[in-house]
Design a protein that fits this description.
homodimer; 324 residues; alpha/beta; Rossmann fold; 13 helices; disordered N terminus
Amino acid sequence: MANLPHTETPLLASRIIAGDIRAAARLMSDIDDEKESALAELKELFHKTGKAHIIGITGAPGAGKSTLVNTLVGELRQRNRSIGVIAVDPTSPFTGGAILGDRIRMQQYTNDEGVFIRSLATRGYMGGVSRATHHIARVMDAMGKDIIIIETVGVGQDEVDIVNMADTSIVVLVPGQGDTIQAIKAGILEIADIFVINKCEREGSVKLEQELKIMLEMAGHHSDFWIPPITKTESIKNVGIIELINLIFSHKKALQENRFQNNNDRKRAEFEFFEILKSDVTKTILRHLRENGAFEQIIQAIAEKEKDPYSAAEEVIKNWLSHT
Amino acid sequence: MANLPHTETPLLASRIIAGDIRAAARLMSDIDDEKESALAELKELFHKTGKAHIIGITGAPGAGKSTLVNTLVGELRQRNRSIGVIAVDPTSPFTGGAILGDRIRMQQYTNDEGVFIRSLATRGYMGGVSRATHHIARVMDAMGKDIIIIETVGVGQDEVDIVNMADTSIVVLVPGQGDTIQAIKAGILEIADIFVINKCEREGSVKLEQELKIMLEMAGHHSDFWIPPITKTESIKNVGIIELINLIFSHKKALQENRFQNNNDRKRAEFEFFEILKSDVTKTILRHLRENGAFEQIIQAIAEKEKDPYSAAEEVIKNWLSHT
């Protein structure tokens, strides 16, 4: 998204900060399309961000994340919170719903101005889906949303990155699917602030809770001021939702009271800086290589096996980094 | 994986080329763990690669990709082809099988030396899962595998990148799931060389075929010498598998006969060079920033909202790229 120097004047940012929903939707589309202009807007918005409480919800396909999000949104609206929802789960009704034949949920919020829903297209994103998610969360934050819920399926580094950006990370498990092992493999067990056992009416619910407790004791805590609780829901029947919301607010409060031990701002800063640097530095180098014709030579040499891509990259880096 | 300069001596490469399966498995683990030493090995192996025919198989969860791969492997073994299978589908029995409760398939090949199966762990991979897949395919190629099958679920850029590296890209669809629209959204319709309608006994099979044909006519062909055919399988009953294999070999032949129009080698070279450059240049810069203390200052400034991450990245790039 970034070529140097940037000369665009941000046109949408002030409208977004003033609450213009169409301007926000427009900028999100520009982020989707990786338009150059989106960068200037994001820069402008950055200083207005940091107020929203970001909730990351992850779990395997079929764990009932979407129903849970749906129910959470309903309860939070009752409490007058404005909400942004970002669905990056390809098996979610909002993004890839056709896969599961379920496309109609959440439609109840279509006419509610307090709820802004955005699903991420499943293609594109030079910078990766996690980077796009960060950007879109920043926009919702600048819109003044009190709470941003990011729903993602718990597989792959992208998802770990997304959950990692949340203030409160929720891992949803269901009985009888061997989910605990999957969660460990995916690396999401260590980053959860709250565990939800959804579909808790199912057989195996007690066993799953016991397994989880053992696993958590083995893993140790990732925070000095918060021991991740395990709570049970049956979201389709609205069971356990109020308890879950209370836990979310307790966690939020704990974060605020332990501001100096809370490194969420830092984590997010590191991730965003790292992602932007990675993408922009590569684009800058490639643009120069293309302009002076070296790119064509390098690719040709690799394609014809005269040079391996590892050495080719090394040479370019040695050549281009002034301080190495 | 790359710090400059590299002084490691490759110890596994020659053993892998000689057919040592344990050495290959070891290197793949090192790639998983992003060990520095893996780079030297990959460099050494690179010149022995380029012989395998790589088949990419993608489709939505539940499309029956794993059963199809299983059946394909059986048929190809009958024809004495040595095979590598890379499973990067998180819903596949090989990687995230617990999700679907199906972990036992492919066990029939455990004792067959002609089949090497590797599933990619669903976490980690600084350089992205597509990069790790490329590396592992290179190792299997150097092992002398005739055919490498990469199975992936058709969502996200990673998957498009993976399918894009294949010589023959197969998209698996099933009737009655709205898959065509999903495939278009995911950007995989344009890159398919062969379409498989799996579970073709299901209602809606004819309708899906018609939809696909219309869509393909609308989209136009991505190759001058190959019109992507649509074939039907019921892989669980072995129906249509021989026809599919014939199509794969026809496509392979067409690629060979049209070598100059075939830009697969180039595509792969571009992708690998791009991915390696991106990861290595960023690591090199970050290492220097950390060593001279600038990293800490930058992250602090972003976390405290004194600076936005976009401008911070710009400044670093301006500072570090000697030619800009």
